[in-house]
Amino acid sequence: MWISERLRARGGSSAAEAGTATIGGAPAAVETCGEERDLPVYAPAGLVWRPRAGDQVLVLKGGTGGEERYVVAAACREEQDLEPGELVFTAGDSSIRLRLDGTIQLRGRVEITGTLFLNGVQLTPLI
């Protein structure tokens, strides 16, 4: 914190900027004050994410002068009935919603590979 305050006092910039992904994938290109390419993309452990061109993203700046940049997040979509503490994972038109009451809602085509259990009982495929 002290270092970031000192850098800001000397005309340094903030530790993060919002921008628009101009080239999706990883690495990504993002337009903030100018376009920067080949930015590494990071996500929370266990989650694999790649921004799409046009996504609003957050670019984290590191190094002593903010010369290292990383795409770390995307702007949240508006979910009108999302309660605080609930999660929605989206990709295109598909989504997984985890509700506070324990309900899991799936949207899109569901394909299951492997063994499926229902209340501890293995289901037999219909094929």
SSE layout and pairing:
Elements: H1 2-9, E1 16-23, E2 28-31, E3 35-39, E4 56-62, E5 68-74, E6 87-91, E7 94-98, E8 104-107, E9 117-118, E10 121-122
Average pLDDT works out at 85
Number of helices: 1
Largest sheet: 5 strands, antiparallel
CATH class of the largest domain: Mainly Beta
Q: How many runs of DSSP E, i.e. beta strands?
A: 10
Could you provide a short overview of the structure?
Helices cover 6% and strands 39% of the residues. The protein is mainly beta.
Please characterize this protein's 3D structure:
By secondary structure, the chain is mainly beta. It is 6% helix and 39% strand. The chain is built from 1 helix and 10 strands; from the N terminus they run αββββββββββ. The strands form 3 sheets. A 5-stranded antiparallel β-sheet has the order 3-2-1-4-5, with no helix packed on it. It is elongated and about 60 Å long. The model has no long low-confidence stretch (mean pLDDT 85).
Features:
127 residues; mainly beta; OB fold (Dihydrolipoamide Acetyltransferase, E2P); 2 domains; five-stranded antiparallel β-sheet; three-stranded antiparallel β-sheet; 6% helix
